[in-house]
Amino acid sequence: MTTTTSERIEVRRAIAADPAKIFGVLCDPEGHVSIDSSGMLMSAEGDPVTAAGDTFVVHMDRDALNDVDLGLYDVTVTIETFVPDREISWKILGRIRPQIGHVYGYRLEPIDEGTAVTSFYDWSAIDPVWREAGIFPVISETALRATLGILARTVAPGLPRPQIDSSN
């Protein structure tokens, strides 16, 4: 399932792993790097997050996007929403000013034989400077969907994808 508006993309996939196992990857800075499909995340520093307000650093390189050559640069991930085994979201704080204000996150719903995972990317509250620049979305629906595939391969290698009941 995919939901796209003019300021938000959501993709959903069933994964044959329990929410706690998936949430563990999403709380780990290196977990973000290992499941990234964009090719921008090079490495990360910091402890696994445990609450809203926690931060970690990601070393980035936009070369994979072939858009703006910033070389190697760092961003700080700041956790906005933290509900264990259910939801995590974050903002990216970088060196550019004004800060952009876009949000990434995941919602997890237990289902038979696994978890329905929704990945979202929301730029509805970005700074007007970036809205006027017309550069969003930077990450595509395809990239979000691919990241969910890598997440599934990471936490449930070789296991078949469970079905999501239409009532979920």
Structural description of this entry:
Helices cover 22% and strands 36% of the residues. The mean pLDDT is 87. An 8-stranded antiparallel beta sheet has the order 1-2-8-7-6-5-4-3, covered by helices on one side. It has 4 helices and 8 strands. A hairpin with a 3-residue loop joins strand 1 (2-4) and strand 2 (8-15). The protein is of the alpha+beta class and 168 residues long.
Strand content: 35-45%
- N-to-C SSE string, H for helix and E for strand: EEHHEEEEEEHH
Could you tell me how far the N terminus lies from the C terminus, measured between alpha carbons in angstroms?
Answer: 12 Å
What share of the residues lie within helices?
10-25%
- The whole-number mean of residue pLDDT values reads 87
Poorly predicted tracts of residues: none
Strand order of the largest sheet: 1-2-8-7-6-5-4-3
Number of helices: 4
Note the main attributes of this structure.
single chain, 168 residues, alpha+beta, 8 strands, 22% helix, globular
List the helices and strands and how they pair.
Blueprint: E1 2-4, E2 8-15, H1 19-27, H2 29-35, E3 41-45, E4 55-61, E5 72-83, E6 87-93, E7 103-111, E8 114-122, H3 128-133, H4 141-155
Antiparallel strand pairs: 1-2, 2-8, 3-4, 4-5, 5-6, 6-7, 7-8
